[in-house]
Every structure is written in C-alpha cells, then in structure tokens.
Specification:
The chain is mainly β. It contains no helices and 15 strands. Strands 4, 6, 7, 9, 10, 11 and 13 form a 7-stranded antiparallel sheet that branches. Strands 3, 5, 8, 12, 14 and 15 form a 6-stranded antiparallel sheet that branches. A two-stranded antiparallel sheet has the order 1-2. β1 and β2 form a beta hairpin. It is globular. The two termini are about 30 Å apart.
C-alpha cells in the first residue's frame, strides 16, 4: 500500500489523504462617518463606498453594495463592530441585524441605545450556519431618529501620540472552527 506524500508550508513531508481546503474569510473597514438618511427605515449597510477591504480577504466579495457573497459553503462566524455616537441632547436607538439571501435571520437583531452626548463601540458576533456557495449575507440597520446619531470615523492621529484610524464599522468573517 502506498501513501500519498504532501508537504506543509515549511517543506516538511506530511502523510495525508486527498484533503483540499480553501479557506474563505473577509474583513472590511468603513473609513467614513455614516448617518442614516431617514428614521424608521431599514437600510442594508454599504460595504463599497469609503470601504477598505483587508488585504488578505479571500473568497468573499461585495455585490450590489451590501451583499457579502461567499465562494465556499460552510458555517461562518460573523463579527460586526461599529463606533456609534450621539451628539444630540436626547437618547437615540439603533437596531442592527443580519440577513441571508435577503431574509432576516431570526434573533440576530441588536438594540443599541445611545444616551445623550455619548459614544460607544458595538461589537457583536454571530454564527451563521448553512452557507452555500454564492449565498450572501447583509448587515441591516435602522434608527429611531437621525438627529445626532452616527457611526463615527476617526482619522489617524499624530498628537498627543501616533495612533491608527478608528473605522466607523468593521465586519470580519471567518469559517467556524478556523
């Protein structure tokens, strides 16, 4: 019986079968402040305008400005981070959730209440099961009032110390178990 011989990234011989694994992942950063055009209206989050894709994004592309399309089937961990602020003198509420192939995913909605004159970082992760090749997900959002509430982009700073920019929103997608 002969064994196939494969080589790892260091050139070492490794015994193995016929395993082919193409890792799909993506990371996109919004590099502009975002204000919803109208209250009580659902919007898909635009990942094309003023967006910087991570250099190593592989197998996830953006279609129709908001659809994050998967090349490969699998279960994926989706992490969304948003740098929200409210500069108004009243509390504001925002809702953020996921949709798959145009259908809202149950129990994915996050309610974010921003008290007056505050900012906060929203970080939420979901596991999305049963993604097929060419399926897509979207981040959707709505706000109760457009006055004072936004996602804030903060450019890189040099004083009082050097630091990189703060994206207004980031989405990171990795395969479950990776």
């Amino acid at each position: 019986v002969s064994q196939s011989r494969y080589y790892d990234s260091f050139g070492n011989g490794v015994k193995g079968g016929n395993i082919a694994y193409r890792r799909t992942f993506g990371c996109f950063h919004k590099i502009a402040s975002i204000i919803a055009p109208a209250a009580d209206t659902v919007y898909p989050f635009d990942w094309t305008v003023n967006t910087s894709p991570h250099v190593n994004t592989n197998g996830i592309t953006v279609a129709n400005t908001s659809q994050l399309v998967f090349d490969n089937a699998g279960d994926y961990n989706v992490v969304v981070e948003m740098n929200a602020q409210n500069i108004d003198n009243a509390n504001r509420t925002a809702y953020i959730w996921l949709a798959k192939n145009g259908t809202d995913l149950a129990e994915t909605c996050v309610r974010l209440v921003l008290t007056k004159d505050t900012s906060t970082m929203l970080a939420k992760d979901w596991v999305v099961n049963g993604i097929a090749a060419n399926d897509y997900i979207e981040v959707k959002f709505a706000v109760d009032n457009t006055s004072g509430i936004s996602l804030e982009y903060i450019p890189a700073q040099t004083t009082p110390y050097v630091r990189p920019a703060v994206a207004s929103a980031t989405i990171t997608i990795t395969p479950v178990g990776a």
